[in-house]
UniProtKB/TrEMBL annotation:
The gene is rbsA7. This is Ribose transport system ATP-binding protein. Its main location: membrane. GO terms for molecular function: ATP binding; ATP hydrolysis activity. One of its GO terms (cellular component) is plasma membrane. It comes from Rhizobium favelukesii. Keywords: ATP-binding, Cell membrane, Hydrolase, Membrane, Nucleotide-binding, Plasmid, Repeat, Sugar transport, Translocase, Transport. Belongs to the ABC transporter superfamily. Its EC number is 3.6.3.17. It is a peripheral membrane protein. It is found in: Cell membrane. PANTHER family: CARBOHYDRATE TRANSPORT ATP-BINDING PROTEIN MG119-RELATED, D-ALLOSE IMPORT ATP-BINDING PROTEIN ALSA-RELATED. Residues 6-241, 255-492 form the ABC transporter domain. Pfam families: ABC_tran.
Length: 492
């Protein structure tokens, strides 16, 4: 085997008294895809940041192409050929796609930015990912899936020698994922080393050559064959036997809580959708990217307008002008982008929980003791691994998601909508969120779950509404729903 393109020896990292990485060693060779797996908080993002120059190790050393390597900034890493595609989107919405792809390294001609060349080269990278959008278009308003592909296009334009992909398919559908995999295989054949971080086990088996597992900041296992049984891999990640992922679902009542009839969007993103959700029922919503799933649940939650149809809650027709109206009536939504839409990441956990519940805590004046007590109850009730006074930005993705869920569930809502509730979350944290969802149903709450993960929507739903190109393709009962029947409807 050739020499590694990147070699890590004894990497450790402390944040004050907290040690998040413990003596981690890792080699990555040219032309191989190494899966880096572990639960949220296992140290994957910290290790990736050290490799990519956004963090510095407390101990240990690295070599790049056989030479000492210690990037002080991401720019130094990029100049060497190391590119990290973050799980969280880092685009500037008011700039064009082309400007985002080449930001900080504009193609120049006669001392000015060569915009024609910039747009042409950006369009080439988009085409590699089968993304047919003008590179001159602003990023603002694009779907999360398309923004994720633009992040990937940025990395492709850098001609990286080592590419770190952190949950690159979390917001992508099947076709977009396959286009990404095609590029990963092409880069591998060109000798690029790739570190691939994902919680989707089917991807790991399909695209990676070997698997390295972190747990609690330590390297605990390596699997030389990506065909290793999923159960074996997951149990090494969580450090315990994995009995089951999806809880047993309760039997819904016969009483509809939410009734949606002939609902349509002014932008035509969904049309003439009709369904109900009973008390104690979990309704899954499935469909390909662009099918109108998120737009539909945003309308139900008051975030987007409707052009036709009605929404009834316990028989009362609602006139929702904004999310405040929906929240007041008892409809809450956990959005797909927890950092941009669900949290104030620079504020404390307790503050985030309080913001959604000010009216429940007495209105204008709330004592510190009442705020602290309320937040601590929410943190304990929903299994957030953190303290109320911690900043949300310090939490893993799974625990940030639990904070978003906790702040809304403390309102005792009648309808809970969860859009991609486990996006970018590890298997262990997923199981905890599934338990929360099922416990809501057991209390008689009507629950709607939107998910791009077909296994998830099949495992957690009593019934599944399938959308195809904005149209309602059908509703499947649990006993008739499987991956084939759902995809047949989704591709009508």
């Amino acid at each position: 085997m050739t020499d590694p393109v990147l070699s890590l020896k004894g990497i450790s990292k402390w944040y004050g008294p907290l040690q998040v990485l413990k003596n981690v060693s890792l080699d990555v060779y040219p032309g191989e895809v190494v899966a880096l797996l572990g639960e949220n908080g296992a140290g994957k993002s910290t290790l990736s940041g050290i490799i990519a120059g956004s963090r510095t190790p407390s101990e240990g050393s690295m070599t790049w192409l056989g030479q000492p390597y210690a990037p002080a900034t991401p720019r130094e890493a990029i100049d060497k050929g190391v590119v990290l595609i973050h799980q969280e989107l880092q685009l500037l919405p008011q700039l064009s796609i082309a400007e985002n792809v080449f930001i900080g390294r504009w193609p120049m001609k006669n001392g000015v930015v060569d915009r024609a060349q910039m747009v042409r080269r950006a369009q080439e990278q988009l085409a590699r990912l089968n993304l047919h959008i003008p590179a001159t278009r602003k990023v603002a308003g694009l779907s999360t899936a398309n923004q994720q592909l633009i992040e990937i296009a940025k990395a492709l334009a850098l001609n990286a020698k080592l590419l770190i992909l952190d949950e690159p398919t979390a917001a992508l559908g099947g076709a977009e994922t396959e286009a990404l995999f095609e590029q990963v295989r092409k880069l591998r054949s060109e000798g690029v080393g790739i570190i691939y971080i994902s919680h989707r086990m089917e991807e790991i088996k399909k695209i990676t050559d070997r698997i390295v597992v972190l747990r609690d900041g330590e390297r605990v296992q390596e699997f030389a064959d990506s065909a290793t049984p999923v159960r074996t891999i997951v149990e090494s990640m969580v450090g315990r036997s994995l009995d089951r992922l999806f809880p047993t679902l309760p039997v819904p009542t016969d009483r509809p809580i939410l009734q949606v009839s002939g609902l349509s969007s002014p932008a035509n993103s969904f049309r003439d959708v009709t369904f109900d959700v009973k008390g104690g029922e979990i309704l899954g919503i499935a469909g390909l990217v662009g099918a109108g799933r998120t737009e539909l649940v945003r309308a139900i939650s008051g975030a987007d307008p409707i052009s036709a149809g009605s929404i009834r809650l316990e028989g009362e027709e609602l006139r929702l002008r904004d999310p405040t109206d929906a929240i007041a009536k008892g409809i809450v939504m956990v959005p797909e982008d927890r950092k941009d839409q669900g949290l104030v990441v620079g504020h404390r956990i307790g503050e985030n929980i309080i913001y959604a519940n000010l009216d429940k805590l007495g209105g204008r004046w709330i004592t510190p003791r009442v705020k602290r007590s309320f937040a601590e109850i929410a943190v304990a009730k929903f299994g957030v691994k953190g303290r109320a006074e911690q900043y949300a930005s310090d939490l893993s993705g799974g625990n940030q998601q639990k904070v978003v869920i906790a702040k809304w569930l403390m309102r005792d809502p009648k309808v809970v909508v969860l859009d991609e509730p486990t996006r970018g979350i590890d298997v262990g944290a997923r199981a905890g969120i599934y338990d929360i969802i099922v416990n809501l149903a057991k209390r008689g709450v009507a629950v709607i779950v939107v998910s791009s993960d077909l296994e998830e929507v099949l495992g957690v739903s009593n019934r599944i509404l399938v959308l195809a190109q904005g149209k309602q393709a059908g509703i499947l009962n649990r006993d008739e729903a499987n991956d084939v029947s759902v995809m047949e409807l989704a591709t009508i």
